[in-house]
Each structure stands twice: as C-alpha cells, then as structure tokens.
Amino acid sequence: MRTALVIGAGLMGTSAALALAGRGVTVHLRDHDPTRSRTAAALGAGTDEAPEGPVDLAIVAVPPAHVATTLATAMREGVARGYLDVASVKGGPRRELAALGADLSAYIGTHPMAGKERSGPLAGSADLFEGRPWVLTPTPETATEVLNLALELVALCRAVPVVMDADAHDRAVALVSHTPQLISSMVAARLEEADETAVRLCGQGIRDVTRIAASDPAMWVEILSANPGPVADVLTGIAADLAETVESLRALQSAEDGARRGGTAGIEDVLRRGNAGRVRVPGKHGTAPAAYEVVAVLIGDRPGELARIFADAGRAGVNVEDVRIEHATGQQAGLVQLMVEPSAAPVLAAALRERGWSIRQ
C-alpha cells in the first residue's frame, strides 16, 4: 500500500491516518467539515489535498448511519482500488450498500476494537490500534486484493486481525461494547442527583464502572441506532436478572427465615454467575486471566514517584503484570496496586519496604 484516502477525520480516521503516514504511506484526508481534515493534516496525519488519481485504499471513518452513502459516493467517484469502513456496526451498512447497487467485491467491512472517551481529530493517536483486535467481515464476494489491502492496513496499524461474520460481529459488540456503555451511563446517572456526602465516598469500584459514561452521547446515539435489536436482546436478559435480584434483596428484608434463605441464594447465584463470566474475559496477551497477587503501596502525589516505584520493582527482579491507582479523597496521596505473580508478591513487598515504601495490606 502506497496511498490511502481517509474519509472522516475524527478519532478513528485520524488515528488510522497517523499510523499509515508514520509508516510511509501517502495519506489524503477528507471530511464534511474542512477544519477537521486541516487539523488532522496539521497533526501529521497526511494532506487535506485531494489525490490526483485513484489511491490504493479508501478508509471510510464516518458514523454508521452515513457509511453506506459515503461508500457508494466514493465508489462512484472511483477514488480507490479497494474500500473499507471502520464503523462499529457491520451488517446494516453492508445491506444498505448492496441496496444502493454498489460493487461489493471492492468492499470489506471492518471494525477496530479500540477507542477513547474523547472524539475528534485532536484525540487521534498513531498507536490507538496497537495490539487491539481489528475485525474483518469478508464475504464470498470480497475480492482477494481488497482483503489483502485490509490485512495490510491492520498490520501497519499493529492491530490483530479477527475474521467474523458481519451479523455475528454485531451481536458480539452488543454484548461486549454497546450494552456496557448503557449500563455504565445508567449507573453514573444515579450520581447526578445524589447527596454530596455520598459522592465523596466514591472509590475505585464506581470509577471503574462509570469510566466510559464520559463518552459523547451524540456518538453513542448513532452507534446504538445502528444496532438496536442485538443490544435490546442483551438488555432483556439483564433486565430479567435485575428483576430477580431486586426480588431477592426484598426477600432479605423479610422476617421469615425461609424467605431470607431464598433471597441469599438468589444474590449468591447472580454473583457466582458473574464470577464465571468474568473468568472468560481474556487477560494478558489474550490468554485466560491469571490470579495475580496485589501489593498495595502508599504513594505521594509528586513528580517521579511512579517512575521510582517501577524502577524499584525492576531492581527486585519482579515483573509488574498490571497496575491500578486508587486516589485518596481530599489528600495528596493514593494507593498504587501492583499486580504480580503470587510467588513474586512477598519478594516485591520486602524489596519495597527496604527502599522505604509503605506497604498496605
């Protein structure tokens, strides 16, 4: 691939353009808002000048509702040898494109499983897709050349290709992406009118659950509008679990021993099923999640403290598998939770104590 045209200079389009431009591909940028393509060009994502002739690959990075018409227009213009989109929904846009009479042999639907809470070209990053799954949804009609161009794009962005059926993809993202967004927003919405004393008690749990609730509502309305059925199906199951959980909690308020036992069993059931589901979430390097030991260290909010603690862990010969920071409310300090192999936890704790760190149980 020597040339590419990115249509849509938002987060996804700009990030793909930055990755391609950084690896020697000549990238042209187009957006319905010229200021966005100019901004992306100024960031080093390519040029906002139109290509002189057909490019190797056109990458359509627009909201799902506009994917088919944007692709059809680009195909009529003959701007590229191959065409793909990076929208988060795949089945609907492909059917719309077919209904518009487009040549589906020149097209492949794709979806990089990456993103941020922020949007727009200024949020773009050349490493956004690095190490992340990038779904490809070829059909028997997809030309080999187009599939190869898509695979080359994924490689240049240092992502991991995953081949799926388009409708299976839409059901999958309804479960692992779209529904979590709604649940996160629903939980965060409870905080809007909460008493200030309750909000001040927010810890890492509520921060984890509500992190993605900061996402752009307009963007998510477009995504959810393109995949409403599968998301509603997942939420129906969650609603049933929620109703049973509410009933179990009410039973725990009962004066009858039998009712309380039934309530306890109901709560335990949903928690155990949650444990079983959580175990299936891939861990480090895509493998099954490991049972790490946590070494919690009190750390001051000063420049260089994180670098120092990681350097001390390195000197102890311990590999930190994961890390989390829990900030202390109203204090210039927090807890750094270092996740390590269980056998390494005592070694790390002892080494850090030796170097003056305060270890918390």
Automatic annotation (TrEMBL):
Q: Domain Prephenate/arogenate dehydrogenase spans what residues? A: 2-289
Among Gene3D superfamilies, the record links this protein to: 6-phosphogluconate dehydrogenase C-terminal like domain, NAD(P)-binding Rossmann-like Domain
Q: Which UniProt keywords apply?
A: Amino-acid biosynthesis, Aromatic amino acid biosynthesis, NAD, Oxidoreductase, Signal, Tyrosine biosynthesis
Q: EC no.?
A: 1.3.1.12
Superkingdom assignment: Bacteria
List, in alphabetical order, the GO biological process terms annotated in this UniProt record. Answer: tyrosine biosynthetic process
The pathway entry for this protein reads as: Amino-acid biosynthesis; L-tyrosine biosynthesis; (4-hydroxyphenyl)pyruvate from prephenate (NAD(+) route): step 1/1
Q: Which residues form the signal peptide?
A: 1-19
Instruction: Give the matching Pfam families.
Output: PDH_C, PDH_N
Q: Which SUPFAM superfamilies match?
A: 6-phosphogluconate dehydrogenase C-terminal domain-like, NAD(P)-binding Rossmann-fold domains
InterPro entries documented for this protein: 6-PGluconate_DH-like_C_sf, ACT_dom, NAD(P)-bd_dom_sf, PDH_C, PDH_N, Preph/Arog_dehydrog, Prephen_DH
The catalysed reaction is: prephenate + NAD(+) = 3-(4-hydroxyphenyl)pyruvate + CO2 + NADH
**In the UniProt record, does the keyword Coiled coil occur?**
no
The EC category is oxidoreductase
Query: Where does the ACT domain lie?
Result: 294-361
Q: Does the keyword Lipoprotein apply?
A: no
Q: Name one GO molecular function term.
A: prephenate dehydrogenase (NADP+) activity
Q: Which family does it belong to?
A: Belongs to the prephenate/arogenate dehydrogenase family.
Query: PANTHER family of this UniProt entry?
Result: PREPHENATE DEHYDROGENASE, PREPHENATE DEHYDROGENASE [NADP(+)]
The protein's name is Prephenate dehydrogenase
